[in-house]
Specification:
By secondary structure, the chain is α+β, with helices and mostly antiparallel strands. It is built from two helices and 13 strands; from the N terminus they run αβββββββββββββα. β3 and β4 form a beta hairpin.
Length: about 220
């Protein structure tokens, strides 16, 4: 009986163990996402309901810019990037497909010649704020690399949203990369592990308990 209990506990521990190596979930640069202009020739902007893995979070859509129509793309960021303020404040989201400890890397720049009050971009996991980014656009397009770590679960939404003045001008996002650093077990797996370890402890305790010897005088 004891060997079966130990086996169950070891199985639970194995299931609960995190992944050994990091796994890239996606790397979205927004290249090839301009409808009718996959090479983003010339310059311009357009509104879309989905840009690669990112979906629009409202009827305002996602604004794609290219060719320096508003600001200059990053040297390593390709030609296309997102502005998070279309006709009004806008947002985009990605739905997590698994439980884990994640890192989201991306580029952010304030829009040139736009106040920091209008350039505000927030990153959220559902309703939990993970970070706020802004800057004064007087210095032109200034791209900065950002890296945000978080623990997320299947079905949660990772959201970029404009949070400044709703005036059709806002901060830029490019080169988004999501990495799964380690897996997080389902609650049922944790319960199995706890029950298995408890059973092992109870079994070992019974084996160590001294026997009671009854004798008649």
């Amino acid at each position: 009986m004891r060997k079966y209990i130990v086996g169950a506990a070891l199985t639970a521990l194995t299931l609960a163990s995190p992944a050994a190596a990091a796994t890239q979930i996606f790397s979205e640069t927004f290249e090839g996402q301009v409808p009718g202009n996959p090479n983003a020739t010339g310059s311009g902007f357009t509104f879309v309901n989905q840009a690669g893995v990112w979906k629009a979070g409202s009827n305002n859509g996602i604004e794609l810019q290219w060719g320096g129509v508003g600001g200059a793309p990053d040297a390593n960021g390709g030609r296309v990037f997102v502005e998070l303020d279309t006709r009004a404040n806008s947002s985009m989201f990605y739905t997590l497909q698994g439980n884990g400890v994640y890192t989201l890397d991306f580029l952010f720049s304030p829009r040139p010649r736009v106040s920091s009050l209008s350039n505000v971009v927030e990153l959220l996991l559902d309703n939990k704020l993970l970070g706020t980014f802004t800057g004064d656009g007087n210095g032109g397009t200034v791209w900065n690399a950002k890296s945000i770590g978080f623990t997320g679960f299947t079905g949660q939404k990772l959201i970029f949203r404009a949070a400044g003045t709703s005036d059709s001008l806002g901060g830029y996002i490019d080169n988004t990369t999501l990495t799964l650093n380690s897996a997080v077990p389902e609650p049922g797996t944790w319960m199995l592990m706890i029950l298995g370890l408890g059973a092992v402890g109870f079994s070992m305790r019974r084996r160590r308990s001294p026997a009671t010897d009854f004798s008649l005088a």
